[in-house]
Design a protein that fits this description.
about 170 residues; mainly alpha; 5 helices
Length: about 170
């Protein structure tokens, strides 16, 4: 049981920290640069939109990696694993925005499960590709617990004034 919890934390914490920190960064840095450089896709819509910034992307990777490094000091996970998870998280979050723009949805529009799982599934896929296998039980637990945790944390971020919508 302890081993499963350690594996769960090693995967979960870098992803959750990387996913959450760009929201904080958006409040700290007023003049951000869009990750898509303001470019439009072939459908005429922005590739990602203003909600994805270079500063947030980099901050998510750095803070998720830092969280993983701190955990590695106690034998939980590793810095390379945390970095891959953090990069995957930020790529998955951007992928979610890309899909929303293709669907014609504006920034902040909710898309259940895409909003809660794109970052996690992309992170786990990159981890599997670059670092190694993920215990199937851990992966299933993460997929089950992430949506409610994501919804609750977004609600609190909204109440704290960090987000403009509660989802």
């Amino acid at each position: 049981m302890t081993s499963l919890l350690i594996q769960l934390l090693a995967l979960m914490v870098p992803c959750y920290v990387a996913n959450a920190f760009p929201v904080v960064m958006a409040k700290l840095v007023k003049h951000r640069h869009p990750l898509d450089f303001g470019r439009k896709f072939i459908d005429g819509r922005r590739v990602l939109g203003d909600g994805k910034s270079i500063e947030g992307f980099i901050a998510g990777i750095l803070l998720g990696s830092l969280a993983g490094w701190f955990m590695s000091l106690w034998g939980i996970g590793s810095l390379p694993g945390a970095t891959v998870l953090s990069v995957g998280t930020m790529l998955g979050d951007a992928l979610g925005s890309f899909v929303k723009r293709r669907l014609g949805l504006e920034r902040g529009a909710p898309v259940p499960l895409l909003d809660q799982l794109a970052f996690l599934l992309t992170a786990m896929l990159l981890y599997w590709f670059f670092i190694g296998t993920i215990n199937l039980v851990i992966a299933v637990i993460l997929v089950i617990i992430t949506p409610p945790i994501h919804i609750i944390s977004n609600f609190f971020a909204y109440k704290l004034g960090l987000k403009s919508e509660p989802w």
